Amino acid sequence: MGKLLAVIFTTTIIAQTSFAEVIKVPVGAQASDQKHRQMPRNGQRRADVETQFGAPEAINDAVGEPPISSWQYRDYIVYFEYDRVLHSVLKHTAQNLDNTAE
Q: How many CB atoms lie within 10 A of CB 81?
């Protein structure tokens, strides 16, 4: 009887964990509504970014070597290496997946 309960319990656990939903979103479809958003360009100076885009909401101090710092704006983050833009990245915004086309 003990072996039967162990088999039933193990089978139940395996069955529950094997039914996971996988959602794939093509990279090109991610943030498609933000595609034309103007963000700082690679190589821009820190002062030029502030002049063009305004003061950031938050500033993260530099870490590592070379020193990498970041400025956080509402919709994106700007990463700096020394005084130059290294990269600008859109922040993730959750979307209601029920309304998306398949």
A: 15
In the chain the first and final C-alpha atoms are separated, in Å, by 48
3-state SS class at 6? helix
Whose CA is closest to 94, among 31, 43, 12? 31
pTM score of the predicted model:
0.62
CATH among 3.30.70, 1.10.10, 3.30.1450, 1.10.530 for 31-99 = 3.30.1450
Is the distance from CB of 90 to CB of 34 less than 8 angstroms?
Answer: yes
- CA dist 102 and 97 (Å) reads 10
How do residues 5-47 score in pLDDT, each as one tens digit?
A: 777 777 776 655 556 677 776 665 556 566 667 899 999 999 9
User: What does the DSSP assignment read for 52-88?
Assistant: HH---SEEEEEETTTTEEEEE-SSEEEEEETTEEEEE
